[in-house]
Amino acid sequence: MLPIITGGQKYSFHSGHWTLVFTNREDPYRWEIHEGTCNGYNCMFTEDFLPLHTYMRPSDWAVFGGSSQSVFKLNDQDKVSFENLFKKMLAEQASDYANKYELLFLYMLECIHGAIKLEPEAAPRSQTAATRLTDPFKNLLSGQFPLVYPHQQIILRAPQDYADRLAVHTNYLNRVLKEVTGRTTSQSINERIMQEVRALLLHSNWTISQIANSLGFDEATHFTRAFRAHTGKKPSSLR
FRET pair for 99, CA 20 to 30 Å: which of 49, 62, 155, 210? Predict the structure, then answer.
């Protein structure tokens, strides 16, 4: 069993199933393997990867922008098609072709549009006053991550910080986020911070004090207490 949790939803897949998943830095995600093993391919990129001549940004594609499906169960034919595409990406990445990154961009587009074709009837998300406030909040929150160096510090830490940037009252921002996402402002901020904590604990050599400081905790003890409240574990347990 392989549960995938992204965008606040949980998807479960059994052994032998193939799945195509699109994620972005706005929505924390994870997958858990309960039995057996999991293998496959991944393609990770930042906006810097996109050619200068394109006006498109990742959020403009429905699979990344939250306006459409982002998790796709593949049948045998789809599995072969996408697997061959990823193999072509890997082969091109290892080649000496001068314009390989332009070709890789086209392969990425083929992957995106191939996924969108799996759900051709998906309707775009309607824009309301609530979503017009929620989207810039998500951009502000996600724009602070990932942290790359220990001396970096997040600037927007409290709900009031975001309300000030968005020129709204904190109560109004909280009410809108609760309506759209099901989470309060504080819960959204804390969830994304804890997602970053987990990544830094698992994949960096930063000390716990450095992680705590970068994420806006005055004391390492406050950080430890917050992490334990969120996960039930000590930060050191992940190491």
Answer: 62
